[in-house]
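Allow me, if you will, to draw on your knowledge of protein folds for a short while. I have a record of one protein: its chain in single-letter code and its fold written as discrete structure tokens. I should value your view on which stretches of the chain appear to form regular backbone elements. Thank you for your consideration; the sequence and its tokens are set out here:
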Amino acid sequence: MGKEDKKGTLYLCGTPIGNREDITLRALRILKEVNLIAAEDTRKTRRLLNYYQIKTHLTSYHDYNQKKKGEQLLSLLKEGKDIALVSNSGMPVISDPGYDLVRLAIKEEIALVPIPGPTALITALIVSGLPSSPFIFSGFLPRKKVKRIKYLKELKENKETIIFFESPHRLLSTLEDILATLGDRRITVGRELTKKFEEISRGEVSQVLRKFKENKPQGEFTLVLEGNAAQNPNVKPQINTNHPNK
């Protein structure tokens, strides 16, 4: 294969989920060295790049342009250009459109290199006090109540710890549906993880629901829910503790 035929590399680059210092030296180097950075939110990524004085060209790649832009990015990779794919925050491909680009790259035998970094689901899991192995990650629950309840019912007998993402305006309805469908299990809700107003709320679902009814949900949320205790009995740790970041 001649030099002109060599394909580029697609780097799957982890970026901070909040605190800008949570980025690896390797990620900073790759972001400087690649020909192009494809970002889910270019405004947010530009702030990160400016903070670290990285001048690499930036382009958008998100849910609304992924088909057309994916083909363009693939063409650049086939021409020998190196591209870093970054998510809104955390690791790309997890609950974002990067999955489609990865599939295309694999099909075209483009080299894929993961650059590990922060991810909200693992961050929330390790501080939850709930069993960390095994666990299930379910991303965002369905927006419509009927579909959400149906999905939760499918999880009712699972013994594994379950992790969800949720938006502030759906948090209360999601907690209500979990309580009604799965019962009053232990849950940990991480809010604004790694950010200035980080808060970890632990308790049973009813307790955490009551708290957020009294305090309007704001920010980004990651929920870590106990599996079916009858299937996976564990000694319960202390509940109803809140830990604001100091």
Notes: The chain has two domains: 3-115, 120-244. The longest strand covers residues 135-140. Residues 66-78 form the longest helix (13 residues).
